[in-house]
Each structure stands twice: as C-alpha cells, then as structure tokens.
Amino acid sequence: MMKVVEPEQWQAALKELQVREQELAAVQESVRTARQQLPVVRVDKKYVFRGADGEVSLLDLFEGRRQLIVYHFMFDPSWQQGCKWCSYLVDNIGHLSHLHVRDTTLALVSRAQIEKILPFRERMGWTVPWYSSHDSDFNDDFSATVDKTEQGGASVFLREGDDIYHTYSGFGESMDMVHTIDNYLDLTPLGRGSSMSWLRHHDGY
C-alpha cells in the first residue's frame, strides 16, 4: 500500500535514497574498472559460423573493429523460436552506430541453424548481425551451452591484428546491466515484477 506524505517528508525520503544511489554508483564504477582490467586469454581455436551470407570465422564477426561483444542468444536447434528472455534483451538494443564509433561490434550467436534464425530475426524486426554456431564448439567452449542446456549471456573479445583475446564473459544477473527496459521499470512503484511472468515476445502481447 502506498504511503502518502507531505512534500517535505517526500523530499527528505528522496534525499536518503539518493545517498544510497550514489553509493551504488561508486560500487558499479569500481566493478566496471575491475572488469576492464581483467587478464585476457588468447583464442587460438578456429571457429566456423554461418550467417546470412554463408560461412564466417570469429575474426570476421569483428567486421574490422577492435572489439567484439557476442550475445549468446538461447536458441536450441530443436526449438521453433528464440528464447523470450533473450528476445527481451535484444529489443533493448538501440542504434549500433553508438557501438561502432567506439570500435565495437555487437553480434548474436546461437546454436540453432541459420535457416531458423533468419526468419525469426525478420519476424522480430531486428537488424543486429546474427550467426549460427550449430557446427562448432563455440557455445560449449564459452559456457553458453552447459550439459546441452542453453545459457544466455555475453562474451567479449579484443582483436590485435589477427590475434583474438577473450576478455570477459557474463551470464545470469551479470546481464541485468544491459536490460534498459528493466532499469526503466525499476524507477516505477510497480517495478518489473518479481516473477516476470508477464513477459512475452513483443508480438505476443
């Protein structure tokens, strides 16, 4: 139930909350710095993906830029459509030029066959590059598939010439920071809801 107070009481309560928000921002900045300073692992294994124009390598996914963010989109080869949670995240993605100007490419990778991926991407109205790892060990090697179970998350790579380095991977709650809609809902009294049982593909409401 809402607690109704006078404006002066509301201002005092808001100031108390803002102190906690500032403390949280300081922790988040510390974590961002630690993430950027993680050691890296050289990726020597050759991976083959399939995209809209045929076979490509991990190096190709960079599209000539220095950084690559791969979102491990959960789409099991036996499924008829992609994960609604991952779809919710991709719906948050804005114009990719803001990433490109920072020498960074964003791509989706799934185990489903490209013949399933492309019609689903068209249905969702997305333009972000999407590749199939169906014929490679990429998902297994980067913990996006564990015991044949899909796991949504992101892996980040840095390129030095043709040498590729794995710099970061995050799954589960680590991905909360890129859910813009959730962060907007968190500003509201009703919030995002504890169960998220309301969530659908955006054409399913």
Secondary structure topology:
Layout: H1 7-36, E1 41-42, E2 48-51, E3 54-57, H2 58-61, E4 67-72, H3 84-91, H4 97-100, E5 104-110, H5 114-124, E6 130-132, H6 138-141, E7 145-146, E8 149-150, E9 153-160, E10 163-171, H7 180-185
Parallel strand pairs: 4-5, 5-6
Antiparallel strand pairs: 1-10, 2-3, 4-9, 7-8, 9-10
- What is the CATH architecture term of the domain at 49-178? 3-Layer(aba) Sandwich
Number of strands: 10
Portion of residues within helices:
25-40%
Structural class: alpha+beta
- Strand % is 15-25%
User: Whole-number radius of gyration?
Assistant: 20 Å
Dominant shape = globular
Describe the largest sheet: 6 strands, mixed
Enumerate the strands of the largest sheet in spatial order, edge to edge or round the barrel.
1-10-9-4-5-6
Query: CATH superfamily membership of the domain at 49-178, which one?
Result: Glutaredoxin
Name of the level-1 CATH class of the domain at 49-178: Alpha Beta
Query: How many helical stretches?
Result: 7
| Oligomeric category | single chain
Calculate the mean pLDDT score and round it.
Answer: 96
Spell the H/E element sequence.
Answer: HEEEHEHHEHEHEEEEH
* CATH fold-level assignment of the domain at 49-178: Glutaredoxin
Distance between the termini: 28 Å
Low-confidence regions: none
